Amino acid sequence: MSATSLGAGSAAPVGDVATSGMNTSRRVALIDGIRGVAIVLVVLSHGWVIWPIERIDETAWIRPLFRSGNFAVTVFLVAAGYLAYVSLASRGLEHTRPGVTFVRRVLRVGPSLWLLLAAVLVVSTLDSTDKTASEDNVDSVWHVLTYTWNWYVQGNLLTSRPDFGHLWYLSVDMQAFVVMAAVLYMMRRRPVGVLFVLGGLLLLLTWWRFHVTDTEFVFQVLVRTTARMDPFVVGVMLGAALPLVRRLDVPQWAVRWTATATLVALVPLAYYCSRDERFLAWGVTLLELDLALLFGATALLTVAPRPVTVMSARPLAFLGRHSLLLYIWHYPVFTFLSRHTEDWAWVPRTVVALVLTVLISLLAHRLVERRATELLRHPAWAEADGGLLPLVRGRALSVWTAARQQVTRA
């Protein structure tokens, strides 16, 4: 099982966008567009569950399209790290409130994830073809809920739920966020020092990835937090460096060429990263640095070159904005169909799997995702900028005062 069969996404594909500046819409559109491509690559990388892959693996120019799940997850992690920094430093790094941002992050990802877990538990109870033991179901759900799934699956690969495999990314993403939030909070009054600390951490994580790649089984490396979180660190470094880079007044021709070159470079990098041994060596490092330059150059653009405009197109940006739901649901749908359509030809099974994934994602968006977004836009979050405890105390005091007034009137 590859790391992407565990899949960005989030993966998925998560990030609390709270940016400012004249290039905000272009930057967010580009990030969403690239995440849109990434979620397509994640879905294709898990197609081995429902279609034959022998011909794909034998064709060198086709294989990378169906073996680039790790590439796609790296895209998600860099974007998530950058957006996490923007959220944490939205009112200035010295005023960062990691507790509030953590709660918002859980509420952003949690409801959609909880719906999936509930649905899988119900189906596993009713589906006679589901062979996962009840105690393994409970353990799997618990570790997904607590964002420790990637730790659990390393030692329990044979007993853990196979259709939860791709959720390792959400665990790594949340763990990386907690570490980075703590670092930024401790360094909140030293904005330049943040870059030195993050740079040192990135070097350490890169060395560690090379080390464990040489000494451990590749599957364990692909789901290990310390071997996969360096793209998140690069994203945070990008967020911390951009205010300083803007002061340099970089020429626009250099920015345009950088944005175009780094965007085009993603194609050969996808090919290079389609092999696990290359990906875990220099692939991750080259890709994360390329993405940081691309996102950073886009933030500095006054006029976007044609390639950036194409990548920011509405269909791709739409896929990127909804990549979390597609990431969460596609693999459980694929594995469920693979159990129940063994006698089907691969073409109709593929069509049904993709259509069902889209329909369930749309339903989940209507039932859960939209309400979660509305909750995160509630004005009460403005009060939370002073911290969670003052907010909770204030709300409790208001309720207590209102109750006392009602008792007095009675």
Kindly describe this structure.
With 410 residues, the chain is mainly α. Helices cover 74% and strands 0% of the residues. It has helices at residues 24-45, 54-58, 63-66, 69-88, 98-126, 134-145, 149-155, 168-186, 191-215, 218-223, 225-228, 230-246, 252-272, 276-300, 306-311, 314-321, 323-340, 346-376, 380-383, 388-409. The chain starts with 23 loop residues before the first helix and ends with a helix. Mean pLDDT is 86; it is low at 1-11 and 15-22.
**For the CA atoms, what is the radius of gyration?**
22 Å
The SSE string, one letter per element, is HHHHHHHHHHHHHHHHHHHH
Q: Structural class, judged by helices and strands?
A: mainly alpha
Q: Percent of residues in beta strands?
A: under 5%
DSSP strand tally: 0
Choose one word for the global shape: globular
Main sheet, how many strands, which sense, barrel? none
Mean pLDDT: 86
- Terminal Cα span: 66 Å
Number of helix segments?
20
Q: Which ranges are low-confidence, i.e. pLDDT below 50, for 5 or more consecutive residues?
A: 1-11, 15-22
